[in-house]
Amino acid sequence: MALSEKAGKLIAVIGDEDTCVGFLLGGIGELNKNRHPNFLVVDKNTTVGDITDRFHDFVKRSDIDIILINQVYAEMIRHVLDTHTTPIPAVLEIPSKDHPYDPTKDSILRRARGMFSSEDFR
Questions:
Q1: Please, what's the largest Cα pairwise distance for the chain?
Q2: Residue 15 β-bridge partners
Q3: Which helix (H) or strand (E) holds 65?
Q4: Sign of the CA dihedral with 65 first, then 14, 34, and 6 last
Q5: Which InterPro entries does its entry note (predicted)?
Q6: Where do the structural domains in the chain lie, given as residue ranges?
Q7: The listed CATH number (3.40.50.2000, 3.40.50.10580, 3.40.630.30, 1.10.510.10) that belongs to domain 10-112
Q8: Among residues 91, 88, 84, 87, which one has the least CA distance to residue 67?
Q9: Cβ(55)–Cβ(69) below 8 Å
Q10: If phi over 0 gives left and psi between -120 and 50 gives alpha, with beta otherwise, what is residue 43?
Q11: Where are the alpha helices (DSSP H) in 31-116?
Q12: Does the CA dihedral 86-88-90-91 come out positive or negative?
């Protein structure tokens, strides 16, 4: 049994090099038993299909509970993210160094706004 299976579930990252390196230095990097990493470094040669495929791979993995994705790349696969409705793995959009976070684009916040009205917070 791998260490990650004993310790708990993983966080996956789909992001630019700076984002992935930061999380890897923080200790999130793992390989599963098939030697597949829990991160994707997106660069200028990465296609939308590559991002979509890796997202689907992360969703199918039983050892991943959270997927962090730079919002700029989430926008590229928004049609896929909007169809992901299961709570686990949770998909969280995060900013990148070159692209600030825009809460109006975040699919989780849009869903939450639809569940509550302003009257609920008074």
A1: 51
A2: 41
A3: strand 64-70
A4: negative
A5: ATPase_V1-cplx_f_g_su, ATPase_V1-cplx_fsu_euk, ATPase_V1_fsu_sf
A6: 10-112
A7: 3.40.50.10580
A8: 91
A9: yes
A10: beta
A11: 48-60, 71-76, 78-81, 107-115
A12: negative
CA angle, 12 as apex, 7 and 14 as ends, to 5°? 165
**Residue 50: C-alpha distances to residues 7, 58, 86, 100 (Å):** 29, 12, 22, 23
pLDDT in tens, the chain (122 residues): 344 445 578 999 999 999 999 999 999 898 888 889 999 999 999 999 999 999 999 999 999 999 999 999 999 999 999 899 898 999 999 998 888 777 777 776 666 666 665 554 45
Q: Which residue bears the tokens 């992935």? A: 20
Query: Looking at the whole model, is its pTM more than 0.70?
Result: yes
Would you say how long the chain is, in residues?
A: 122
